[in-house]
Structure formats: structure tokens, C-alpha cells
């Protein structure tokens, strides 16, 4: 990035274990695992489905009946990481308001998966939400989405789509430049979507996440029993004098 930008967060996933000062392996609203029930997803996230090795982060989904601590049973288990809290009353590790977010990600080729690189409010409540890249029902097209509240408090979205590209064949760099007056999405260095309507742009601190959800918007077909999403590296940059704040609290 140019000299007027500063790197405020980075991980190259070296070594053999996830850095607990940067990441937790669940949302903070459950203990002993978690899920996103709002999407009726099929997975129960567990830390053993997250691994680091060979210079990359890997999230693995498996078709395996898994009891959740919420009293339900889930047909899949999977992995996720977040810069947020380890538990409800902890502090988030890192939150960001504005910045340039980029990561090299390889999405799985299997149908029925929802690999995502995204940001959610540190307040836990969405919208707003920023989806840097989602494999939403497709492995050759990427969705880039902003969620916001309408005048009556209803959720609204604006989305761009890029493809077809054989995304599972290799790593691709997905990025979002979140500014006070614009949102600009990039795929492999090229602008693919842009939003400038002030009503749609969030101005709240957000956590960064990588998630491999299962079963939304479609369930995996018979014969699909596992999938892997890999992240080679991730960076967050902010402009000097323009960022509203990045906080590394180390809450663990």
C-alpha cells in the first residue's frame, strides 16, 4: 500500500497453531461450539475443525452428527475464526472502523458450502454487515455485499457478483476498501463493485471473520461429505489520519 497507509493487522499463518492473540474459533454467543442459527445453517463450529500448517489456515467441514451445547444436534461440523471475543463478557481481540481488508483465499469446490470472508459489528447485532467475498450457492461466482437498516429498521442489501471464475482451482485475493463515503470491492486487484450511497455505508467498529458454513442457501448433495477452505494470508490497512480506530485488546 502507499506510504499514507499503515498496516494494523496481519497474519501469514506461520507455524503449526492458530495465534490465540489474534483469533478465536467461534462466535461469542455459545460455549463449547457455535452456529449461525439465523441462516438455518447445518454446521456446529468446533475448534478442532480449524488448523494451521504449511503457511495457511484451513477450515474443514465434515458430515458428522455433532451435538451442540444449545441442545440441538447438527449433521455437520465445521471451522471458523474471528477477531472477536472468546466469550460473551470478554473484549474483542481486534475491531476496525474503516480500512482496506484483503486476504488470499481458496474456496472449496463442493456444492452446499458457504465460504465467507466478512465483517460483523462488535456489538454482535447485524445489520450492518460487510461481506468481502462469499461463495453464495456457487463456486465460480463471488458475492460482494453490504447489509444495512432501512427507514423502518428492516434489513436491506446491495450486492455485486463477479464470475464465472474457477475459484476453487487456486488462491484469489479478495479485498474491500471501506471508507467513510464509499465501499469498493476488488478481486485479484481489479475493482468489481462499488457503493457510494451514504445510507448504505456503516460507521461502527467491526470484527473480521472467515467462516465455512454448510447448507445455506442449499444443502450439500448426497456424496459430499467434506470440504476445505484455505486462507494463505490476511492484511488490514488504514489511512493515517482517516481511520476511526483499530483496537487490539487481546481479550482472551
TrEMBL record:
CDD domains: GH16_laminarinase_like. One of its GO terms (molecular function) is hydrolase activity, hydrolyzing O-glycosyl compounds. It comes from the Bacteria. Residues 1-242 form the GH16 domain. Gene3D superfamilies: 2.60.120.200. InterPro entries: Beta-glucanase-like, ConA-like_dom_sf, Glycosyl_Hydrlase_16. GO terms for biological process: carbohydrate metabolic process. Belongs to the glycosyl hydrolase 16 family. This is GH16 domain-containing protein. It comes from Streptomyces lydicus.
Amino acid at each position: 500500500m502507499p506510504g499514507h497507509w499503515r498496516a494494523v493487522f496481519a497474519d501469514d499463518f506461520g507455524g503449526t497453531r492458530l495465534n490465540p492473540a489474534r483469533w478465536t474459533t467461534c462466535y461469542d454467543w455459545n460455549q463449547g461450539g457455535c452456529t449461525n442459527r439465523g441462516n438455518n445453517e447445518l454446521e456446529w463450529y468446533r475448534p478442532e475443525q480449524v488448523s494451521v500448517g504449511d503457511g495457511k489456515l484451513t477450515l474443514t467441514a465434515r458430515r458428522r452428527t455433532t451435538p451442540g451445547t444449545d441442545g440441538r444436534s447438527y449433521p455437520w461440523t465445521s471451522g471458523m475464526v474471528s477477531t472477536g471475543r472468546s466469550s460473551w463478557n470478554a473484549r474483542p481481540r481486534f475491531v476496525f472502523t474503516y480500512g482496506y481488508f484483503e486476504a488470499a483465499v481458496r474456496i472449496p469446490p463442493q456444492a452446499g458450502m458457504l465460504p465467507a470472508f466478512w465483517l460483523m459489528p462488535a456489538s454482535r447485532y447485524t445489520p450492518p454487515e460487510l461481506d468481502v467475498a462469499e461463495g453464495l450457492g456457487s463456486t465460480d461466482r463471488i458475492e460482494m455485499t453490504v447489509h444495512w437498516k432501512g427507514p423502518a429498521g428492516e434489513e436491506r442489501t446491495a450486492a455485486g457478483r463477479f464470475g464465472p471464475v474457477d475459484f476453487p482451482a487456486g488462491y484469489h485475493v479478495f479485498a474491500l476498501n471501506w471508507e467513510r463515503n464509499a465501499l469498493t470491492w476488488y478481486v485479484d486487484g481489479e475493482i468489481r463493485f462499488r457503493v457510494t450511497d451514504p445510507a448504505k455505508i456503516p460507521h461502527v467498529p467491526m470484527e473480521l471473520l472467515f467462516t465455512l458454513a454448510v447448507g445455506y442457501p442449499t444443502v450439500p448433495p448426497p456424496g459430499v461429505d467434506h470440504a476445505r477452505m484455505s486462507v494463505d494470508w490476511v492484511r488490514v490497512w488504514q489511512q493515517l489520519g482517516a481511520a476511526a480506530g483499530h483496537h487490539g485488546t487481546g481479550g482472551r
